[in-house]
Design a protein that fits this description.
It is a single chain. The chain has eleven helices and eleven strands. The chain is α/β, with parallel strands linked by helices. The protein has one domain: 3-Layer(aba) Sandwich (Peroxisomal Thiolase, Chain A, domain 1). The strands form two sheets. The chain has a nine-stranded mixed sheet with strand order 5-4-6-7-1-8-11-10-9, with helices on both faces. It has a two-stranded antiparallel ribbon with strand order 2-3. A hairpin with a 3-residue loop joins strand 10 and strand 11. 48% of the residues are buried.
């Protein structure tokens, strides 16, 4: 969708906890040596007992502070859209309203957005639609956070495609200008591939209620077994859906991959990054954020915005550059957005609270 009027990112913030190196994970018996080598991952961010909504609040504080340069105040916001890929707190409780209370603290709509890892891009599109349709308010706050340190999750072995990481991100979407203009945003889905993330697991009672862990590898093994027994494989390849979606949104933006300065993608391990994103788009890793994400991991829906904040705050993208934000999630669905940088970061370093990374940092520096 090419935007019918100017919509901007007025502020951006992230919060990342300390890193645990994959070397340490191997030494402690958490992670397999061969899998570590194949993944190319150096570290994953781990937040311990910091609740996910609190990470979203910390990221939002930075995004709101940066957006204040456009004159935005809490009364100018019409909604808060919060994204999560894992449980946020007590059953029957609203994490979006907790984030709202601790940020804008205004009586506006607060809703949780999915699906999964493309949640923030879906929320970005919804925010743009809202601002175009309803001119009574000038901004929407979009947040995302996850903490995979829960007992029911083995972040090191839940999937060979990625290492689950903790952290948060926030973006202020506004009509009043900002540091980047949203040129186009869109998504495509392949509902025939819905089963890939269900893979034989019963719908009721939900697995989490009977002590079932989050294990994508187990589901993948189930599907491979069925295909070996003759069940037809999915008619669509995720990489093809990625390429088709990116081509369409870039065309709507009047752009092309040759004009894109950088791509901010999901924090996959090296093999998945190539097969799902880089190879279908025929681009090299240095166009993306691999050197950064290999020291972070997969922070749910926050990944593209964590990457953008890193590039923008470090000066790796400058005024005039076009950046592609890209994510895929259950469904299967792919979403992307084209933004054009219109202003430099007001501070030299990001406000994301990156604690010391110890052995992970030393390893990254080698």
């Amino acid at each position: 969708m090419k935007l019918a009027e100017d919509i901007h990112l007025a502020g951006l913030g992230t919060w990342l906890p300390q890193a645990t190196s994959t070397e340490e994970a191997v030494n402690r018996g958490w992670y397999d040596t061969a899998v570590r080598k194949a993944s190319g991952m150096r570290a994953v961010r781990t937040a311990g007992e910091v609740p996910a909504p609190d990470m979203a609040v910390r990221a939002a504080e930075t995004a709101l502070r940066r957006s204040a340069a456009t004159g935005l105040e809490p009364d100018d916001f019409g909604a808060l859209l919060h994204c999560a890929t894992y449980h946020q707190g007590p059953d029957g409780w609203s994490a979006p309203h907790y984030v709202l209370r601790n940020t804008l603290d205004r009586p506006v709509t607060a809703a949780q957005i999915g699906p999964g890892c493309l949640g923030m891009l879906a929320a970005l599109e919804l925010a743009a639609h809202r601002l175009i349709a309803d001119r009574s308010k000038d901004a929407v706050l979009v947040t995302s956070a996850d903490n995979f340190s829960a007992p029911g999750v083995d972040r090191w072995n839940a999937s060979k495609l990625f290492l689950l990481a903790d952290g948060g991100a926030a973006a202020v979407v506004s009509r009043r200008g900002g540091f980047a203009r949203l040129v186009a945003v869109g998504s495509s889905s392949a509902p025939s591939m819905e089963e890939l993330h269900r893979a034989g697991e019963q719908l009721f009672p939900p697995g989490i209620t009977v002590g079932r862990s989050l294990n994508f590898e187990e589901r993948s093994a189930h599907m491979r077994g069925r295909w070996e027994q003759g069940t037809a494989a999915p008619p669509v390849h995720l990489g093809d859906l990625v390429a088709e979606t990116v081509d369409r949104v870039l065309e709507e933006a009047g752009s092309s991959l040759e004009k894109v300065a950088r791509i901010c993608h999901t924090g996959y391990a090296e093999g998945a990054l190539h097969s799902i994103y880089l190879d279908p788009l025929d681009v090299e890793p240095d166009l993306g954020t691999w050197e950064f994400t290999r020291g972070v991991g997969h922070v749910g829906a926050a990944d593209p915005f964590i990457g953008l904040e890193r590039l923008w705050s470090s000066g790796e993208v400058v005024v005039g550059d076009e950046v592609l934000l890209l994510a895929a999630g259950p469904g299967l669905e792919v979403a992307c957005a084209v933004v054009q940088i219109t202003a430099d970061c007001p501070d030299e370093s990001p406000d994301s609270a990156e604690a010391p990374v110890d052995s992970a940092r030393k390893e990254e520096d080698r």
